[in-house]
Structure formats: structure tokens, C-alpha cells
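Inputs:
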Amino acid sequence: MSNDSTIQVEGLTKRYGDLIAVNGISFTVGRGEIFAFLGPNGAGKTTTVEMLECLRKPTSGKAFVLGLDIAKDQMAIKKRTGVLPQDFYTYERLTVKETIQYYAGMFNSRPDVDGLIKLVDLEDKRNVLFKHLSGGLKQRLGIAVALVNNPEVLFLDEPSAGLDPKARHGVWHLIDGLHKQGKTVFLTTHYMEEAEILASRVGIIHNGSIVAMDTPQGLISEYGKRNMLILKKTSPKAVPNIEKLGVKANYDGPTGDVIVHLNHGVAVSEVLHSLSSSDIPFGELQLRRSSLEDVFLNLTGETLGEEEGTI
Amino acid sequence: MSHVVIDLKASIRSFLRNKSTIFWTIAFPCVLILLFGAIFSQSSTKYDLYVQNQDIVGGKATYWSDRLIGYLNATDAPFNIQMIDSSVNATDYAITNRLSSLLVIPFGFGTNATSAYFTNGTATAANVTLIYDQSTSSGPIVRSIVMSIVENINFGLSNGVNFLNVQDLTIAPQRYGYIDFFLPGVIGMTAMTTSIFTSVSISAQFKQNGVFHKLATTPLKRYEWILSRTVYNVLITYLGMSVMLILGVAVFGMKMTVDAISLFMVAMASLMFTGLGMIIARFVKDPDGADAAANVITFPMMFLSGTFFPLSQMPLFLQAIARVLPLTYVSDGLRASMIFGQSQTAIINTAIITVLGVACIVIGSWITKWEED
């Protein structure tokens, strides 16, 4: 394996009877990268990350974390990686500080406990029992716990699932900070916005297979719809006018809107200019940016599901 | 090893912060002991009074001996009089048969009573001897009733001149009360409930809320965690046991021995029930199911293993069931070592529980998984 790839996966497969949870996936994650696995629940994200954490045995395929084989070097991998499981939970009746100390003890490490508490902004909760923490604070403590052994690689499984927007932003800020410290982060998410904001590269996983992998911008420009200009309550006569400029446009009967599919060659100002010079009135304007959600929809024909990452 | 100590510290901290667990493991057994101890220690309104009449002349009881027995046997006296053979050694008989009280009317009692009665107490009073076990709840009661009956006879027949006298002879406490039976049973029961419930519910909870999952990502090994839980269960059971022993001595004046065998038995019982709990936990899906399953196992065992009532008082088929329940051997072994001083019985029962304990913990550890495959 190459020296600068921290995680290397080759043809990794996990079957449960007839069900194929993960189907021969291959990818690499470079040192210091934030790599996001984006996909709906049940796509195989957690199964993959748990194989990399040495919690599940692959049916076939190989994977190396920090150059260590997940099939042979489990203990060495555990010692050098940090894990935030989905919905982190621990001894209910230990305080924030005691929880960090407990896990530090498990790694025989002596981290700066107060520094970790400060990092995850739980200074005023240090003596609060775990069971009395809110969901967002539990996740933040989970991140502190994942850092007790000063790991080189962090596995974060759905780090902000179920959190309110404010708490989610807090977690994102934290992950971004870790990235800046040079940690390699592998995260799974079903929030496209999380992947788009945090990840340097995104792998889109669907039914156990990786259907696309690139930087968020690369994915959007390759698989996303073009940006769209929506002209509210506008005459259908605008359509041929706009198409003369070399862009596609269509009239949406029920809403009375004209939708212009922009491309790189034509600016919004040109469209508006052509309408005003032909005396075609138009109402309110909306500009819709293409997102990973569109990429996912285009690639799989499905949406990412319930609550997408709207803030 | 340091992982075990760290996890053990976390578990004990959690225990000390959990009021309901403290109640169920420490206070509840004490309440049971006080309650059952009080109910069963004073349930009888009639006491068995064994009487040996040696004052037989020509094959017949003398006038005064017959009269005394008549008073003791009167309908308003709280005694069931049981006559024993006049030729046996009374003290040995009382000890062997674990009698709490035995009244001996010596040969010559009638003659002495007659002369004391007619000389208005100038002659020596006629003695009877009451052999009683002061360690039992009924022994001292019987003694005071016999005393007051004799006093009444003295007062009624000779205006207060003591022509009859009761001599005390106490015997070693070889007779056991309900509490002596009950307390070791409750210790066994606590070892069972503490170990099974904590083991089942912690396993089910940790599985459901993902604590196992997180632990599995650390260098903590499964066997280290199981060892920590087992030591924790043993310590908590010892704690409960200490409180119960103090209670037994302070409230019921119990006399018992806590030796290496009884301590080892409690540890092995905890080991066995921890393993059994892990086996149950493997087959339940969530914490609610875990508690239900733990109840299904512990409740019948609590009532059928001779915790509350001696097995001999149960119908034969229930006794047969009791013989296959492990708690029976725990209770029997603890009684043998702590109360009866029957070291052989104690060792046999402890050996049975040790074998079962090791088997349960090995199977339990084997089938407990932190993760699905």
C-alpha cells in the first residue's frame, strides 16, 4: 500500500446469509483527509466502518488501517484509532471527567483530561453524570473519549445524527478542528450537508456498493443537476427567448414558473437582459444551487431520506 | 489487570450512586430478615415442655409430682406436656433431641415437698430442675412461665412459703430457631438475585445502548470485563452479607461462624449466578425482557430452594425439584458451615457449587458477545 494512504480497502464484502450488506467495495483514505461515507440508513456505512474498527469480520476482501491488517492486527489498530460509535453511550452514573478517565485507563494513556474537556466545551459539565447530559453533549463527550489515546485515525459513525441544528454545528466545528490538527477522519453520515461541509472527499454508498467517489464539488459538477434559475409566475413566451441563448428552459404549467437550467456558458444577467429587451415581465427570482442531494438522487434514483441536513 | 480494576471502580461508583440498587441488595434482604424473623419467632402460643418424672414409687408417680405436672398441664397453662422416659439421662436427651426446655422431677421430690409443706418451709424446699436452652426464643419464655406457675403453687397452697423450688440448668445452644435457618438462606438468595439481576440487566442494557460496542473498540478484553463484573458481584454480595450478619447478631442474638468455607461458598455462588445471568442475557433482546427472564429464574428458586421454609416441610415432589435447583445447595452449604458447624456437608455443597460456578461462568463467557458478527 502507498505510504500516504491511511486507510486502504480492497474488495471488502460482508454477507449475512443471502443479504449482502457490503458488496466488494474498494477505496483509500489519505493521511489527514476527512473522508465521508454518504448514504441512507441501511446502505452499508456502519457495517463498513465497523469492519475497519475490527468489530466485525469481513466475509471477504482486505482492509488496512495505518498499514495494519484488520484481520490480524486488531489490538494494534484499536490502540491507534479512536471511535465514536453511533449514539455514544457509556456508564450512566459516571461524570464527564470520570468517563474520560475510565476510557483513558483502558488505553493505558494519560491524556490531558482537562484539555479534552475544554476541547469539547464541557468545562461546566465536568462533574455532571453521563445520564444527565443532553444528546449533543453526550456526542461531544463521545468525541473527547475517542481522543483519549491521541489516535491517528478517527472513525465517527453518524456523529451528528439526531442532534438539533445548534448541537450539530457544534459537533461539525469540533470535527473541523480535529482535521486541522492533522487527524485522519473517516465519517459516515446520511446528511448531505455534513458531508459537503466537512469532507475533503465523499464516497456515495448505496445498497452496499460505492456508486461514486470524489470531492464534494467534483461530485456536484459531474452528477449534480445544473444550477437552476426559477422565474416565478412568468409567461411561457419566455422559454423560446431564453433557449436562443443556448440554455434549456421549461415552463411549469401548474405553478406558472419558468425554470432555466443554467450552465457555465451563460450568466444569469444575460437571461434577465434578454427578457427585459423582449418586454417579457417576470416576477420573483430564485436561484437553486445543485447539492449532493441531487447527486445522490441522480445516481440512485432515491433521496437520502427523512431529515436532510437543512439548517 | 489494571483494566479490571478500572472497570470495577466504575461499577462500584455506579452502585453507590444508584439508590434503588442499594435498596434491593442491602436494605430489602434486611427487611425480609426482620419481618420473617419477627413473624416466625413468635408464632406459637403453646410451648412444648418436656417433663421427666423420676419420682416414681411402686410404678406410680408420687402425689406431689403428679400434682405439679397437673398444674403445668392445666388448660390455662401454655404448655404441651411431653413426658419422656424416666430412665434416660435428661441433659443428653435434651441436647440430642434439640429440646429448648426439659423439666426434671427428681426421685424424692414428693417426700421433700411433703416435709417442707408440713414444716412451713423449715425443711429444705423440694427441687425440680429445668434444663433449658437460653439461646432459643422459647427456652427463656418457658422458664419464666414454669417459675411463675411454681410461685403460684407456693402461694396458693402454703401462703407464700417456698416449699417447691426450680433450679436452672442451661444447656449449650444446640437448638436452632427459624432465624438460624432463615438468615443463611437469605444470604444465598441475595447472592443469587444480586448476581443474576446485575449480570442479566447490565448485559442486556450494555448490548442495547451500545456500551459493549464502545468497549469493544478499546483494548479492554471481554474476559477482563467479565472478571470485573464477577468480582463486583462477589463484593456486593459480601457487603449485603455483612449487613445481614450484623443484623442477625444485634437483633436476634444469633451465634454463627463465618469461616473460609462460607466465604468461599458465597463467592462461588456469585460466580455461578453471574454466569447463569450471562447465559440468560444471551437469549433476551432488551432490558425489559431481561428483567422478566431473571424473575422467571430467581422467583421459583427463591421459594423452592428452602430459603423461607425447610425442604422437609414441603411435599415430596417439590423436594425433588429443590434437589435440582442450585440455590438449594448454596443455602444448605451456608447453613452447614455458618450455623450447624457440619463441615463435611458444607464442603460437599461448596464443591458442587464450585463445579457449577466454573461451568456457568465458562459457558456464560463463551456465549456472551459484545458484537453481532
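Strands of chain B lie at 47-53, 56-57, 60-61, 79-84, 101-105, 126-132, 164-170. Flag for discussion at group meeting.
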